[in-house]
């Protein structure tokens, strides 16, 4: 794996003593968390095999350092399936995080809500997902490790810890099921009605392949969605990526406080 070796060597050179415990993948409008880390930031362009993360609102850099006294590694951007048709686009970065010492992966995203009790500006703690796209990042994996058990993909103990952190910050985290829609176009009202019938509470274009990869690698996972809009047919917003970027900071501020408390309590 030449790209793996080159990237790991570059990271070790930039942060020779780093041993991060918690890894993050940040969604649209959530890049400010990386700015608070005391450490180093390495552009993806300097890391062989890392994605370009060519979606506006994402900062394509790996930040390694300390946040609230905990060593962390933050992937400031992700490559989405819709960019190049690769469900496994984040495999190498996640393999790197595991090699560095990460045991827990915290994934964030922006989403459209189906529920009136989780309106824009609020957060949803993901407790399960629906892989509506049907794509798996493990297609082509030759070993039996590809048969990953996803019964508790979103770790129950981490969810308890996040509820406690949210309560201390005066915030309420409602749990729900996240549906992965491949994008890049937004869903139709009919598709949203279908996903509601299937049991989804929110929809987005990321996270699920990353969680599958993380569980494949043996990492514990948790994920929180920032609600930026009501899904198609359920609200009055004009749904667009610009609207997502403009709306995300409202929920991101709440999530940032919860994450800091969560790390403090680890």
Automatic annotation (TrEMBL):
Keywords annotated in UniProt: Glycosyltransferase, Transferase
CDD domains: PNP-EcPNPII_like
Regions annotated as coiled coil: none
KW Transferase (keyword) present: yes
Key word Signal present: no
GO BP annotations listed: nucleoside metabolic process
Functional pathway: Purine metabolism; purine nucleoside salvage
Annotated InterPro entries: Nucleoside_phosphorylase_d, Nucleoside_phosphorylase_sf, PUNP, Purine_phosphorylase
EC number from the UniProt entry: 2.4.2.1
Top EC class, one word: transferase
Any Gene Ontology CC annotation: cytoplasm
MF terms (GO), sorted A to Z: purine-nucleoside phosphorylase activity
Region forming the signal peptide: none
Function: The purine nucleoside phosphorylases catalyze the phosphorolytic breakdown of the N-glycosidic bond in the beta-(deoxy)ribonucleoside molecules, with the formation of the corresponding free purine bases and pentose-1-phosphate.
Homology family: Belongs to the PNP/MTAP phosphorylase family.
Quaternary assembly: Homotrimer.
Protein name per its UniProtKB record: Purine nucleoside phosphorylase
Organism name: Celeribacter marinus
């Amino acid at each position: 794996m030449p790209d793996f070796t080159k990237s790991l060597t570059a990271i070790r050179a930039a942060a020779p003593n780093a041993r991060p415990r918690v890894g993050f993948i940040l969604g649209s409008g959530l890049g400010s968390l990386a700015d608070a880390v005391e450490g180093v930031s390495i552009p993806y362009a300097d890391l062989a095999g890392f994605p370009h993360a060519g979606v506006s609102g994402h900062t394509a850099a790996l930040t390694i350092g300390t946040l609230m006294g905990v060593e962390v590694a933050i992937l400031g951007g992700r490559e989405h399936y819709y960019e190049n048709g690769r469900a496994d686009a984040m495999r190498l970065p996640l393999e790197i995080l595991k090699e560095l010492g990460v045991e827990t992966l915290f994934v964030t995203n922006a989403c459209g809500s189906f529920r009136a009790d989780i309106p824009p500006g609020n957060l949803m703690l993901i407790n399960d997902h629906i892989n509506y796209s049907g794509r798996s990042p493990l297609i082509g994996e030759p070993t039996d490790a590809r048969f990953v058990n996803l019964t508790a993909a979103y770790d129950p103990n981490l969810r308890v810890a996040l509820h406690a952190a949210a309560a201390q910050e005066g915030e309420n985290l409602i749990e729900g099921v996240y549906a992965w829609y491949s994008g890049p176009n937004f869903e139709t009202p009919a598709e949203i009605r279908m996903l509601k019938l299937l049991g989804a509470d929110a929809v987005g274009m990321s996270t699920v392949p990353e969680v599958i990869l993380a569980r494949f690698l043996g990492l514990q996972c948790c994920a929180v969605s920032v609600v930026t809009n009501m899904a198609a047919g359920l609200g009055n917003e004009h749904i667009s990526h610009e609207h997502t970027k403009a709306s995300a900071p409202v929920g991101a501020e709440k999530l940032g406080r919860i994450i800091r408390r969560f790390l403090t309590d680890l």
